[in-house]
Amino acid sequence: MFSMMQGQTVQELHFCQQGPLNAVIAIHNLTLGPALGGCRFIDYENEEQAITDALRLAKGMSYKAALARVPQGGGKAVIIKPKGSFDRQQLFKQFGQFIQSLSGRYITAMDSGTQVQDMDDIRSQTPFVSSSSNIGDPSPATAQGVVLGMITAVEFQLGQDMKGLTVAIQGLGHVGMALAKQLHKEGAKLIVCDVDEQKSLWAQQAFGATVVNVDDIYSQECEVFSPCGLGAVLNEKTISQLKCKVIAGCANNQLAQDDIGQMLHEQKILYVPDYVINSGGLIFASGRFRGLSAHQIGHEIYKLKDTLNKIFILSKNKKQASHQIANEMAEHILYGAESQNTNANMLEAV
Hints:
Blueprint: H1 2-7, E1 12-18, E2 21-29, E3 35-42, H2 47-68, E4 73-80, H3 88-100, E5 106-110, H4 116-123, H5 139-158, E6 166-170, H6 174-185, E7 189-193, H7 197-207, E8 210-211, E9 224-227, H8 236-239, E10 246-247, H9 258-266, E11 270-271, H10 274-277, H11 280-289, H12 294-302, H13 304-318, H14 322-335, H15 343-349
Parallel strand pairs: 3-4, 3-5, 6-7, 6-9, 7-8, 9-10, 10-11
Antiparallel strand pairs: 1-2, 2-4
Helix pairs in contact: 2-14, 3-4, 5-6, 5-11, 5-13, 6-7, 11-12, 13-14, 14-15
């Protein structure tokens, strides 16, 4: 267990087993403030898979907060979805009590498998929740940041706007569908897929999207491939099928292994680091929790454009993969001189 934590540089790992509730909270780093991260409520094949997910995602949240410049640490919660029948409201109230026991070290939010009502049930037990109905759904803010990041990447890579370009969206969940809506307004052509065929058909009717099988999404002719489902979808097999120039999506941990990012760089595909482009939801959740106005939050999200442009410029000038540049910048913010890199200082000079 400790070696798993060390591998992801996670500082704390908390467990709760109470009736049908089997929950894990991973706290990666508290340098910038209390940890903030979503709660996943999905099926896992085994406990180790759930723990690994929490550890990886918590680290990503620390890096995300660092480059989004929000005063939060990185954390993530995972609840293993029970088999059979259970009282959902009671389960999330118990989870709220678990969060309360950490005395503010971790603030939860919506993620895969959780809903606003779940957040309200958690909030009945603890104030440390940022996606309850009094705060709002962060999905539109995440989509806003992804669209902004995609436009920024397309401008940098192709020298044009989104009108008439084709975007292949993999996954039409909360954020994926909101992203499709915003891209449709920008004049982009959409290719979509989802394990839920009804969602794909809805996007077809609403946005004129072309629907393809989930296994065929990688090989579509498009300018932008947008992973918006679960993580680790970019691997040696899938990237060999890609026909895009830019990868920009809302999914977390899109790279199956770190060297995949270097392979994409060598293929001259601009990969937009996932934890930077999808940080709009974190900015929203943190801002609303801290009492910021909608205008202030929108301004903070817009700053992602400058951060991404600086990452792209450094990547091009140093001939280094974009995700490596982003990682080094985040590590400099989190660990200072210990990170032993100069990219963060170069960032200020660009």
